[in-house]
Hints:
Layout lengths: L29 E6 L5 E5 L12 E5 L1 E3 L3 E6 L5 E11 L2 E7 L9 E4 L4 E8 L5 E7 L3 H8 L25 E4 L11 H9 L3 E7 L22 E5 L1 H12 L4 E4 L1 H10 L9 E5 L14 E5 L6 H10 L1 H13 L10 E5 L8
Parallel strand pairs: 1-17, 3-12, 3-14, 4-11, 14-16
Antiparallel strand pairs: 1-2, 5-6, 5-8, 6-7, 7-10, 8-9, 9-10, 12-13, 13-15, 16-17
Amino acid sequence: xxxxxxxxxxxxxxxxxxxxxxxxxxSGSRLLMLDKxxxxxxxxxxxxxxDYLRPGDCLVLNNTKxxxxxxxxxxxxTGAAIEVLLLKxxxxxxxxxxxxxxxxxxxxxxxxxxxxxxxxxxLEVVEEGNRLIRxxxxxxxxxxxxxxGEMPLPPYITHKLQDKNRYQTVYAKYDGSAAAPTAGLHxxxxxxxxxxxxxxEIAYVTLHVGLGTFRPVKVDNILEHHMHSEYYQVTAxxxxxxxxxxxxxxxxxxxxxxxxxxxxxxxKPDGTLEACCGNTEIFIYPGYRFKVLDCxxxxxxxxxxxxxxxxxxxxxxxxxxxxxxEAIRERYRFFSFxxxxxxxxxxxxxxx
Length: 352
């Protein structure tokens, strides 16, 4: 059996380079440009990306919205603190959740949140120790959640987020994610307007990001890794924009690995798209042949993660690891609130 070693995607990252807070100005983060063929790099500010986008390009954005899915409550009988993280809505008011501490959440356990404005009962324990919970409340669940819930920040962010909206893209629309599509955090409404004014098409797709995105690869041979499942949707309008760009010889530029996984999951063998939805477990690693994507805007990812494997599939493992080394030397900020990278084709001239 073929093997690709997990350790091939390891790099040393100083802990102080993990960004703990978002920048004041979303589009003021740094941008490392990487030529996917030659491995050449340049350093820019994110808002300068507009100089490297061309009329006719299609920019693909994931318009999922992060739920403020972390709820802090107490057990009804003992008053002991308990944390519930919403993972997936099963039906109406029944959710699959991750509960801490799990041993205190046996079936029948009742939990109170926010001075009683939200109640929950544990129904059963399901796979991986997750709990099915039924919520009861007055009014609209999303409004109750917005009032009581906190953003489920990744495990490597230890600072408290001051403004919930900073872990949300400016174009977030459809509730359903447990984590933000973080490459999109760099865009402002103004920058998107300028991009459209330049003649770049913007296509919105949806992929609800699951917490599995943070799950480490535990096997030494990555080909034995099983990817988590995530729901995606491509509208007829998005499919038409992407197909037109491809047909006319323009580039499809995905913003984030989630947009990339969506279009690659939805593509037919000839690389065209049509309106569709479903669940994807697509795992993209070196050797993968991209059917739709030409270029990728993405953040800097964790060592040995499936995401660093995906970017290596596009630009080559050695090019990516060298660019990461350079980013570390230049003190770029890493992960969700960090700086960005544009993996592109030749950028010798600014494309006007």
